């Protein structure tokens, strides 16, 4: 009881995950709080060590705040149109000021641009830059040049361009900038990262960077083909998914953050700054539905490079450039978000067997083909190799979709997705006439289907359960309906949907599995937002569209004021939980919106 009270106490103090806005240059991302502080930024890539890690500790672990002197949170903020350019406003007794934040699409060096503009009155503004490299651990040396403050530590160097007329000085490991914002005046700051051995940094025009960044995002968003009633939520989700794509390689990260807790004060804290085959494939499916084809072509090339080698050694997760080694380590010098430890970097899921990824990958290749993207011969060769590997392994137990740490099991969802892989492969072979062992694939499809129907259904209740022989429910069993494994009017499907709706309810949302289901970790967690969208999908398939739409709206409304969703939601404390923004959640939102009509 004492431990529970302590977790409760921790959960009610400190910052909130939904306080943050997302910036991205399509190679890394920054999180900006309502108080005007950039509390998270990894440079130069999503999975690089951070230079701002206050998100997992405090300002002393790295942050950059620009705001009116003595002010708290901004009084209003928004993205400028269909972009990821953020505008935050403060109304103070001295007047009004706004800060425009952006990460320009990169040419050579990553940059964070912050433009302060006076709106009314004369507002004293204070900037406090604390650079702490290697995830908040290393305090750099700082030197002054004519136009810059240069912070250097090991391989990293950050150059802060200081505008003329701004009083800038060092104090207690912080670069302080002070000035007064007056109407019509724009004061730009540019922070540039580059390797420390370079002695100069390119000159930049902040206003030109702003104009180009606005144009780039607007042009991309203009391709959206969704015309349904939830256009704003769909577009904002697709912009977020685009922001998580690593442009040089086509890889897509699951989230730009690490170790944001699933339970405040607990240890369910994971690093999501990598490319899960499952998450990446699902992200591509959402982008394709939205009309964005270029990302699909880039991701297929990334996939070919990432899985090259022994097909039996396909990993569930890779680095953004296809790296295979992602060792999981802990950072004891960071106290964690809301005291949630350990803080982890890297992810041990790299060594897990997750058979469902075959289904997600092949399903996405099928969707790309049906979207008009030609099937290249090397992609077809990869698909045949993957199906051969799956045929040899599909009866094995695995760690499954939820990456349990309590040993492998015969998870129902993994088997259903093995069926999806075989089914979509057959469909593509029949559609294209490309060479394929069709009879073997059809036999694989039938064998998986028969075994799942025999072993994954609770004979007493007639519902699909978490794993063979188990009694626990799992929201992932909803895929028996949404993948076409069984028709939606099959009695087992109807009973499973109703069982999940009732048995996994958590404050009107859906848990991913029952609170008593073993996963190898202590403590409970919140409602899993993607699962709530999956239930809406299944309800729509059962013809219960009004009920599905109501659940969709309820779940989508949990986004913050900028349309961003994390992994989970706490219905008790009414707060987002887990890494943010979460690709898995935004993918589910987009797919459900299309299913409901768009």
UniProtKB/TrEMBL annotation:
Residues 9-167 form the Trehalase-like N-terminal domain. Keywords: Hydrolase. GO terms for molecular function: hydrolase activity. Signal peptide: none annotated. The keyword Plastid does not apply. Pfam families: Glyco_hydro_15, TREH_N. The keyword Cell inner membrane does not apply. SUPFAM superfamilies: Six-hairpin glycosidases. Residues 231-593 form the GH15-like domain. This is Glycoside hydrolase family 15 protein. It comes from Kitasatospora phosalacinea.
